[in-house]
C-alpha cells in the first residue's frame, strides 16, 4: 500500500519545485477541509443549543440524547479526517525530505567524481589543471617557485598483459597510497591518464630538494607489495619549473612530459630535468614517430650484418642481423634512435617480420655461394607477446629459403624473457630446431633463473662489460665468473663490443668462445659482407 501511494503521488513529480507546489496545494485543500469541518461543528453546536431550548419543557431524557447525537457524529468525522490528513502529511513530508537528502548526496558524489579519479581517489586531469592555473597565478603574485613532476610508469602495459587488469589496478592503488605518504602535505598529486601521474610542488627552493622527492617517489613505486616479487615495476620522472620553464600550466605540463620521455629513453628508474635542448630533440622524435609506419611500408627499413668470429681462429662463423633506417632527410639512422619509438608505437612486430624475411633470404644466398655462416636475429618484447605470429614467420621463411632452423639463432634479452608468453615462445622455437641466445647478459634481472628455466645455448656478454675491462678490474673478474658459470652449464659465450687488440687478447685468454665488434667488421649490407668473405674487397 505504501509503495502504491508513493508511486501514485510522487512518481509524476520531476523536480523539487513541482513537489513543493504540490505540497502547497495539498495544504490549502487541508486548510479548506479543516475550515469546513470547523464550520460544520459550529453549526452542530448551534443546532444543539436550539434543540435544548426546544426540549426544555420535555422531560424525556431520550429526546435530549437524540438532540445531542449530530454533534457527536460531527466530532467523530472531524477527528478521523484530521488523523488521516496528519498521517498523509507526515508520509508526504517524509518522502520529500528523503528525496531531497538522496539528491543532495547524489550531487555531492557527482561533484566528487567530476573532480577525482574513480580508481585511486586522486584529483583527475581537469580539476588538477584548474588548481594548477590557480597555483600559477598565486605564484606570480607572491614571486614563488613551483615544480611539476610528471611520473610515467615503466612497462605498465606489460604488467597488465602478464597479470591482468585487476592486478594492475591493485598496483596503482598501492603505489598512489605510498606516494600520498611520501609527498608533502602542501603538494598536489593527480592522475592524468592511465599510468601517468603528476605532483605539483609549491614553495620550491633548491633543485636538489625536488630531485630528492623524485627519488622517494621512485623508491615507493619499487616497494609496491602486490607483484614486487614477480615484476620489476618502475617509474620515470620528468621535472619542469615555474617560472624558468614556462608560465602557463599547459606549457609546463608539456615540458615535464618531454623530460619524462627523455628519462624513459635513458633507461628505467630515471629522472630528467627539462632543458631547452629537449624541445629540438623531441620535435625530431615526433617526426620520426609520424614517419615510421610509412617508412616500413616503403622499405626504408633495411638490414645490415655484423660478423662474429671464432675466438680460437678469428675466422667468421656467424653474423648478427641489425636494422637501420635510411631516412630521406637525415640519412642512415641507428636503431637506438628509432627502435624506442617503434616500441612505443607497437610497430616492432612489423619491423621484426621484415628483418626475418630479408635476413634468412640473405643467409640462403650465402649458403648457395659456399659461405658457411649462421645467423643471429634479435627479438623484442612485443614479439614475445605475439609469439605465435613470430614462430610462423620464422618457420615459413626457413622453409621457403631452404635454410636449416639450427642455422638461425634467436637472441632474446632478459627483458623479453620477462614477458608472460616468453617461456612458451622459447619452448616452441626449440621444438622447431632454432637455437636460443641470451643477449646483453648481466644487464637485466634474475639471469640465473632464466638460464635454469629457458633452454639457452649461448649467452652474450654486454659491450659495457668489455669496454671497462682495462678501466676497472671488477669487470674482468665478472667476465671470468660468467665464463665459469657458462662452462658448468655447457653454454657458449660471445663477447660483444670488442674494438682493441688488448681486449681481444684478454677475452681469448679468459676462454670466450666468440668475439664480436668493430675490430672484426662494421655492420654492412649482405652483398658487401659476401664480397669481403670471398676476399674480393678489403675487410669491413
UniProtKB/TrEMBL annotation:
Ribosomal protein as UniProt keyword: no
Keywords, sorted A to Z: Hydrolase, Membrane, Nucleotidyltransferase, Transferase, Transmembrane, Transmembrane helix
Residue stretches spanning the membrane: 20-51, 71-93
The organism of origin for this protein: Alicyclobacillus sendaiensis PA2
GGDEF domain boundaries: 144-276
Gene3D superfamilies attached to this UniProt entry: 3.30.70.270, EAL domain
GO molecular function: cyclic-guanylate-specific phosphodiesterase activity; diguanylate cyclase activity
Pfam families: EAL, GGDEF
Lineage, top ranks: Bacteria, Bacillati, Bacillota, Bacilli, Bacillales
Entry EC number(s): 2.7.7.65, 3.1.4.52
Protein's UniProt name: Bifunctional diguanylate cyclase/phosphodiesterase
